Structures are given as C-alpha cells and as structure tokens.
Amino acid sequence: MSIMQTPVNSHADTMGRAFASTTLAVLAAVLVYPTSIRAEDEVSDKNTSGRPNIVFILADDLGYRELGSFGQEKIKTPRLDELATQGMRLTHHYSGNAVCAPSRCVLMTGKHPGHAYIRSNKEMKPEGQHPIPASEVTLAELLKAQGYATGAFGKWGLGGPGSTGDPLNQGFDCFFGYNCQRHAHSYYPSYLWSDDERIELNNDPPVPGHASLPKGADPDDPKSYDVFKGEDYAPERINEQALAFIRENKDRPFFLYYPTVIPHVALHVPDADLKPYLAMKWQDPPFTRARGFGYTPHFTPRAAYAAMISHMDRSVGKVLDLLDELELTDNTIVIFSSDNGTTHLKAEVDYDFFNSVGELRGLKGSLYEGGIRVPTIVRFPGHVKAGSQSDYISGFEDWMPTIMDMIGAKDTVPDEVDGISLAATLMGEPQAERPFLYREFPSYGGQQMVRVGDWKAVRQGLSRKKKVVTELYNLASDPGEKQNIADEHPDVVKRLEAIMQAEHTPSDIFPIPAIDG
To answer: Could you say which DSSP state residue 456 is in?
Structure first.
C-alpha cells in the first residue's frame, strides 16, 4: 500500500511531489497491498486480495459538537465515542458543502464545489434531485472496478430513480433507502426503494414530513401528537439491509456506503428510544408548527432530537458488532462523518440547548465553520493509531484519493479530482500543509469561502450582482469568526480572493450572479 500524500490535481501538485519524494522511503514499508486484483480473485468466494473493506457512515445534519467525543454533554453516543478511542478524530474536517445534495456530490466525485456538478439542492419531479451525469466518475465506480462489492443504504439525493444519477447507474451494485431527499423528511414513509423496486412499509397512513397539528387539537395534550407516530421505522429497515450486505459480502472486499437520514428533521423517533430522555425531565416546550415553514410537530422536541442521535449511535454499533462477529474489524476502514452542520430550525432543534456547534459560528446552509466543519472519525486497527487526533485541514473531496491510495489503487483516481490523499495523516506521519480548501454555495444568499492555514476568507450575498465584500478571519485566534480583520491584512485578502476567483467554474444550473461575470 502506498500511503504517501498523493496530489491528484494541479493545485496540490507542486507541494505534494516535493513532500512525496522525502516521505516515500519512510512510509512505503508500513503496509503493502497489491495494486490490482487478479481476475481469479474477482470471482472467488474469499477475500484473498488482502484489500481492506470500506465502511463509510454519513450522518445527516449532525453538528460539530453533537457527539460525546467532540464535546457533547447531553446526548449519549457511547458507540461512536468508543469508535473515536479506537481510531483518529479529525478536528478540522469539512463537509462537501452546507446542505445535503452538493455535499454528497463532493464526497462521491472528489471535486470541490467550484468544480462539482451539483452545487445546491435542486428537486426534480416526480421524485429525486437533479442527477449527476453518466460522465461523472464516482468513488463507487472506482471501487467496483477494483473488484469491490458496492452497496448504498440510506439517503441518496444525487439523481432520481432511473436517471443517470441513480445509485445503480453510479457504481453501486445495490441500494436500499430513500432516493429523494424530500421523501426522507418522513421516517415513517409508505415505501422505500430496494434497487429499482418500491418496497411498501407498514405505515398506514404514512406520516408526512411536513404537517401541522390537526384542527382543534390541544397543543398541550401529548395525545395530539400521536398522529405523527408510525409503525415501521425506516432507519431500522435501512440498518437491517446494511447488515445483510456485510454478511452477504464478508468473503470479498466490500464498500458499504451508509448515509443514514438521522438526525435530519422531522422529529420522528420510536417511543422506546424517547423514554431515557423523557426521564431526564428537561424543560422541553412542544414544537407545534402553528404557522410557517417547518416539519411535523413534536410534544418534546429536545428529547426527540437527542433520542434520534442515540438511535443512530446504536445503529452504528450494530455495524461495528457485526464486523467483530465476522472477524472483519482488523481489515476494515471505518469512516464516520456528517454531510453538514446542525439545522438552523431552532424551534425544532434547539442548537443552543445542546451546544450543537460549540464555539463555531453558523449552522446548516452557512459557509461559516458551524455549517461545514463536521465531526469525523477514522478507524483502521493497526494502521490508524487508537485514540489519536489530527487538526490537518481536510474535506470530503479527499476521501476518494485517500481510499484509493489506501487500497493500492491511487493511480486510478481521475486527474480532475481536487482532493488529496490523507493516508499519511491517518497513519500518523507528517504531511505537507494543503494549499487551500475551497467551498462555494449559490443558495442561502450565495456564498464563497477559502481556507489557507489559519486564514479563512468568506463572501456573502453573491446571489445578486452587487459589490462583493470579503471577510477575513484567523481561526487560530478566532475560531468563532467574530472579528473580521480584512482591513488589517489586505495582502492576505488579495491572495485568498485570487484563489476564490481561480477555483470557481461557472455553472448554468447553479449560477452565482455576483461572480459569474
């Protein structure tokens, strides 16, 4: 296995090559995997390739401080906290973008948002989001070409059923869950997708993701909220299928992509999961959704939100326990992260009560730190040091080159990918500072940001053609982005603005008027 830093585009090429030349000799002896799977291995019943399995678990709208291992004090996440003690916490890791679909596009394609095809949520009728085209190369396609079984279980959001972006058309052998992000707003839906078939669930009627209390219902009576409880909890169905995939492919290398829908609202959770938090007797005023936008009401929203995250934690635990049972743990890379920060809908998710993003500024939909810096854990026994931590600046675009590097197939990564391999960092070895990390988001007013070392530049209000103002922060001294020091450092501002200009490629589908020219 080659675990040197592997630059895969021109942006990182100069620094990466210089670093690689000095570290290759030191690192190459750590572990060696074959660079390709022999033809006979591809049809074998046993994983004789020696290549590690990949399990990538992606939470939905989980904030930076919502795991115990990242500072959470109210919500219980024992299995993920244990995972952190067994691997490495990445404390400066960035999701692909500030909302679901574009973040997942960065993860799957390895392109940052200035080059990625999907740059915002864009719903398509009758079901699904704007599809990534057939020309896009995904992580699943690369792994499948290397002989991996590939399965996705949870929420997709990169193309409706039968479209070019359907997971079955983007490298996955099988898919189970929600294709459409809006459909995933309900945890008690009428159906889920199993490959290209709709599987009916035992929810009659299904619980809507958006609704108000029935007319005349008493908002102070807990029974008024019973209409938002179902029988067949979709996350349980999804978890069952993910476990089945592991069992079915235990004798060959596999890639399990598990984008759970938790803890994205609506606040839907079984009563059994709710009980431990009700026992805490928090002051917990109901979310009634009396008017305006929102999801479904809940009588105890704080308890519900905590219970959902704890449910996710137990589901992750089932995956980890099965890896132990099948004696796959030592040969499996487990990665856990979140697609963006905590939701901004405070009436439903009290992010202040939970201190969801801690000292960071911003929430979901924002390119300030709280919207895109996410809790991330990597475990690979014997290779990633247990209980370790790294503040290396990294992002979703890095997972494609990192994973392909760690299985000995780094040369298969497309040249246009923006990410760099994090293998050296994960192995506890020195790694050259990345040249920059770039994000743009055409929605929520239109935004750009770039981080270089401790410097971070942010632009807001780009959805209209007007004068662009650049904010500048030093994250080492000001992690909460409270003091705009652009006027004090015009040279730094100019340098970071040049990166923003260079890294933005205009998109007809997702325009940013103020910078598209």
So the answer is: E
Nearest to 59 by CA among 453, 451, 356, 394: 356
In contact, 308 and 295? CB cutoff 8 Å = no
Sequence-ordered list of residues with C-beta below 8 angstroms from that of 134, at least 6 positions apart, any chain? 164, 169
Band the pLDDT of 11: cuts 50, 70, 90. Answer: very low
Residue with tokens 């990949």: 54
Angle at 414 (CA atoms; ends 408, 417), nearest 5 degrees: 105
Residue type, 126: P
pLDDT single digits (tens) 44-96: 345 666 899 999 999 999 999 999 999 999 999 999 999 999 999 999 999 99
Contact 326, 250 (CB under 8 A): yes
Radius of gyration in angstroms for the set of CA atoms belonging to the chain, rounded to a whole number: 22
| Contact (Cβ atoms closer than 8 angstroms) between residue 94 and residue 449 | no
Positions of E strands within 294-410: 332-338, 376-379, 388-390, 394-395
Provide CB contacts within 8 A for 39, sequence distance 6+: none
**Alpha carbon distance 288, 485 (integer Å):** 42
Q: Which two tokens stand for residue 496?
A: 């970071």
What contacts 79, CB < 8 A, 6 or more positions away? 313, 314, 316, 317, 320
- The answer to whether the pTM exceeds 0.70 is yes
pLDDT in tens, 334-387: 999 999 999 999 999 999 999 999 999 999 999 999 999 999 999 999 999 999
Q: What is the arithmetic mean of pLDDT over 149-176?
A: 98
In 3D, which of 270, 298, 130 has the Cα closest to residue 213?
298
Phi, psi (5° rounding) for residue 404? -65, -35
